[in-house]
Write the C-alpha cells for this entry.
Amino acid sequence: MTLWEGRFAGDSDPVMQQLNDSLHFDRRLYRADVQGSIAYAAALEEVGLITPEERDRLVAGLQHVCAEFDSGTFQVKPGDEDVHTAVERRLGELIGPVAGKLHTGRSRNDQVATDLRLYLLDEMAVLWTALAELQEAIVEKAEAYLDAIMPGYTHLQQAQPLLFSHWLLSYFWKLQRDYERLSGVVEHTSVMPLGSGALAGNPFGIDRQALARRLGFSRVSENSVDAVSDRDYVVEFLAWAALVQIHLSQLAEDLIIWSSHEFGFVELDEAYSTGSSLMPQKKNPDALELLRGKSGRMVGHLMGLLAALKGLPSSYNKDLQEDKEALFDAVDTLKTELPVATGVIRTLRVNTERMASAMDDAVLATDLADYLVRKGVPFRQSHRLVGEVVRHADALGLPLRDLPLVEYQAVHPAFTEDVYAVFDFRRSVEARNTEGGTAPVAVRAQIERTHELLTAENN
Ligand code: ARG
C-alpha cells in the first residue's frame, strides 16, 4: 500500500519500485521525521484541526514508532517506499484512522526538506566537536616538539629550516577556517521549510514561527516554492566536507612521505598501520592513505549533487531524492576520518635527530643572501651572488660551511670571517620572529592564540 494509490488502478513494476524506493538509505531520518511530525501534530491542534486528545494519540504513536526504529524491531512492509511513508503506515497500524489526520496540509516535499535539515544540524554538531578534537591533538603535539627543527620544503625540495611545530600548526589554521566555515552552513541549514506544503504553502493557518521554535530552527523559509527545492545547504555542506577532506589528505600526504624509510622523520603508531600479506617487514600507513584516498569520493559527491540540481525546473522534483546518499556518505566518512586523524596525530612518534640530520647547508642559502643584505648588498644582487657560492661549493664537493673564506671573497668582498656564523639552523629559525613566522617566540605566540580559539570553541 502506498500513500498515493488512490489515483492508480494497477501496481507498479517491481524494478520501478527498486529505482524509486529510498527507505534503505533514508531510514536514518526516522528520528527527524518523528520529531517533525510531533511538532506538526501540535501545530494542527493549535489551529483546531485535531483535538488535544487526538494530538496526544498521534504523539504517543509516533514515539512508539521511533522506539521500534531505535530498538531495531521496526518491520518494513511492501509499499514502504521511503521513511515518511513507513512511519505513517506504522502509525496507522498502531493508532488507527486518526493517523490519517497527521498529513493535513503537509506534503512529503516540505516534510523531507525539514527532516534532512534537522538531521544535518545534528550531524554538524558532532563534526564540529570532532574537528575541534583534531585541532587540539595538533596543538598538543606541536607543544611537545615545539623546538624541533626540520627542513622546510617547497616543491618537496629543501627550502628553509622550519620548526616541526610550525609545520604541524599550519594544519591547525586550515582546520580553523573549516571550523569557522561550518557556521555559515549551519546558518543556511537552520531554516524551516515545514508549512510550505507541496509547493504553494499551508492553507490551515498553522503558526510556522511557533513550529520553527519547537523544532529549534532559527528562522522559517520565506518562499514555499524555493523551500521545497532548496538543497543549497547540502551543496554547501558537501563543499565544506570536500575541503575538510582535502586538508586531511594533504596532512596525510606529508606524513606518508615523512614516515618512509628514506625520511624517517615520523613513525606512525601500529594502531593506524597495517602489514603486508607477502612482505613480512612491511608496516604500511594505510590510515593515512585512506585519508588521502577518500578525497575522490568526497569531491565526487559535491560534483554529483551539483550535476543533479543543474537544469531542474522549479519546486520539487524526484531528482532531489539523489541528495541523500551523497550527504550521508560524506557525513559518515568524516565522522570516521576525523577521529582517525586525531589518533594518528596523538600517537605519532617524532624523530627529531633524523629531522635535524636531514638538513643540507643549502637550506641556509637564503640566510646567506640575507647576510649580504645586512652588509648593504641589494637583495637581487645577493641572491645571484649566493647562487654562485652554491655552485662553487657544489663543484668543489664541499658543504657551504666548509668552503674557504677566499672562495667567498672571490664572489664578493663583503663576505668576511663572520659569514660562518650563518651556518646555524637554529639561528636561521630564530631570525624569522615576526608574527606568523617560524621563530620559537612567534610559534609560542601562535600556540597562545590557538588556545584562545579552542577555549572559545569549547564554550
Ligand atoms: N523520498 C522523497 C525524497 O527524498 C520524499 C519526497 C517525495 N515527494 C514526492 N512528491 N514524491 O525526496
User: Anything to note?
Assistant: The longest strand covers residues 157-163. Residues 108-144 form the longest helix (37 residues). DSSP finds 19 helices and six strands in the chain.
